[in-house]
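User: Could you check the structure of this?
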Amino acid sequence: MTSPSQEVRSTYALQEGELVLTDREILAPEQSKAEAGSPLTGIAWQWVHFMDPLEEYEVSEPENYTLEFFVDGTLHIQADCNRASGSYIVKDASITIEIGPMTLAACPPGSRSEEFLQNLGFAAIYFLQDDHLFIDMFADGGTMKFQTDIQSN
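Assistant: Sure, the predicted structure tokens are below.
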């Protein structure tokens, strides 16, 4: 039996027409999601800027590239003409984003949909500064800057 404060991940499989528990894992504290009241949650974050050692640019139409984190560790992603769901794990300043099911619409020329999703998959560290969210990618892969939908750059 687990205590109410422990998170458990259960895996089931269909065997001979019945749903059977195949694995049960008690998640360690480092696998925890954002805490209630986290500055990440409850906000629609718009991608507004990208910078890496080779290039830097402002994102046109940032309202088309959004992240929304939820306390339960899930997130919703708007990547231009596509939508995705996913999960995230935070520990101190580190962040891991796993992109799950998504639509596969062909976005118009100039879209940064694929780049946006790829960059999120390489997320390593996050920090908040001046009401902006910054996500740094692995191996000096760049920094994504986000703002809320009511801010200006």
